[in-house]
């Protein structure tokens, strides 16, 4: 990496809901889960009860589809007081397989935006979740050749970003991260002294919305669509050089 | 890494069933699975039917406990003709949680052997499977400080090793891999021109026993216990320098 000039030397991209559609499919799977257990009990809060089980299991399962499906099976047994049929359990497992099989659908303007950034800075992909599934999605996206490195991590916190900066050979002040999650993509990078471009997505998992930007907001830009990324990056880059 | 002198410049270690006990727990979980479905059907081949489902799902789930448990749930529905109760499905999910929670138990002599090798060569850990679970096991093992890098990969084939050698900055001929699986640890490294020390474990998953060493056998040593690793490495190292 080029560390000799001032300014930004490396740009990281998040993947799910930044480059391609993801949460929509999870939302659909959750709606289908609610229909399945809805045949046994009349509950307005099946979604919240599922989220409670997911949250409880997060420290054991980590992120990703497989852990979510195991939590769905467990929540379905709980919610139905163990009345759910084996056939309906199987439907839940099939929901998960559907999520894993889903083709990767790039969000509008993504290819052009990543190409434009990659023409000016080296770019890396940093995504969390299931190693096997994320690798498959990166492969299917057709974008993998643009990225110098693909990093799949178990958690996107300041500790992880600091380790990655050391591996990449850049200082935090030379790094900008592009992503849809304030909690995972923006806050930890700003905290370390880096830069961020926030691209909100129309739907976000409850777990990711719970974030506070304590400081560094002056090193962040929010954009409404990924098409605005090149100009936001130019703005941050100029600031980083000044 | 030191690439200037001839000989071996980097040693890689496999983790599961090389550094710590793993397959034993999977075998126990499978026996428990067979007891659970055995209450519904009188089958001698429940284990084979489970393995068939696991193998079918491998391209979708990858390796690791969570995929195995999802395959167990699916196999249980299949084997019992959808008669398995929700309570027994829940017991299967709990089997999986037990596997994920199990404390890491180092195999005898492992700490001394790794320390001895790490005193002479830089060492890295290369393991496949679930990112989240493998990271937790490395953390719990108390060995992570000995390793320069921890690489968790989705598949251990020649393609993956070649990518890692490029990231590590070593040639295949400078790399030796220590592990219990001919298929995952030894054959692909020998194929690329590297070195291998095979440490067989008393029990091996069916999937890992299916390997043929086509060439490079002269660059491999088999040892009966990890305590013999230092002398096996000295022998390979002398050969690599000659």
Layout of helices and strands, plus pairs?
The structure is a homodimer of 242-residue chains.
Chain A: E1 10-13, H1 23-38, H2 46-61, H3 65-79, H4 86-101, H5 110-118, E2 123-128, H6 131-141, E3 149-153, H7 158-168, E4 175-179, H8 182-192, E5 195-198, H9 206-209, E6 220-222, H10 229-241
Parallel strand pairs in A: 1-2, 1-4, 2-3, 4-5, 5-6
Describe this structure in words.
Two copies of one chain form a homodimer. Chain A is an alpha/beta fold and 242 residues long. The first copy, chain A, has two domains: 10-20 and 104-241, HAD superfamily/HAD-like (Rossmann fold), CATH 3.40.50.1000; 23-101, DNA polymerase, domain 1 (Orthogonal Bundle), CATH 1.10.150.240. Chain A has helices at 23-38, 46-61, 65-79, 86-101, 110-118, 131-141, 158-168, 182-192, 206-209, 229-241, and strands at residues 10-13, 123-128, 149-153, 175-179, 195-198, 220-222. The first copy, chain A, has a six-stranded parallel sheet with strand order 3-2-1-4-5-6, with helices on both faces. Chain A is elongated and about 65 Å long. Chain A binds chain B through residues 60-64, 66-67, 69-70, 73-74, 76-77, 80, 82-87, 89-90, 93, 96-97, 100-101, 130-133, 135, 152-154, and chain B through 60-64, 66-67, 69-70, 73-74, 76-77, 80, 82-87, 89-90, 93, 96-97, 100-101, 130-133, 135, 152-154.
């Amino acid at each position: 990496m080029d560390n000799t000039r001032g300014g930004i030397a490396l740009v990281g991209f998040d993947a799910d809901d930044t480059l391609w559609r993801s949460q929509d499919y999870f939302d659909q799977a959750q709606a289908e889960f609610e229909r399945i257990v809805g045949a046994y009990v009349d509950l307005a809060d099946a979604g919240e009860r599922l989220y409670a089980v997911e949250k409880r299991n997060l420290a054991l399962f980590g992120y990703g589809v497989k852990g979510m499906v195991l939590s769905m099976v467990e929540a379905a047994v709980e919610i139905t007081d163990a009345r759910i049929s084996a056939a309906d359990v199987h439907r839940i497992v099939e929901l998960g397989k559907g999520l894993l099989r889903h083709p990767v659908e790039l969000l509008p303007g993504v290819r052009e935006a990543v190409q434009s950034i990659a023409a000016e800075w080296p770019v890396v992909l940093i995504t969390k979740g299931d190693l096997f599934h994320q690798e498959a999605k990166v492969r299917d996206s057709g974008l993998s050749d643009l990225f110098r490195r693909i990093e799949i991590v178990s958690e996107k916190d300041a500790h992880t970003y600091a380790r990655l900066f050391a591996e990449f050979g850049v200082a935090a002040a030379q790094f900008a991260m592009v992503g849809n999650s304030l909690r995972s993509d923006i806050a930890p990078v700003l905290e370390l002294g880096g830069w961020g471009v926030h691209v909100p997505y129309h739907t976000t998992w409850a777990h990711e919305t719970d974030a506070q930007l304590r400081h560094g907001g002056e090193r962040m830009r929010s954009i409404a669509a990924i098409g605005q990324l090149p100009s936001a990056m130019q703005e941050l880059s100029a600031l980083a050089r000044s």
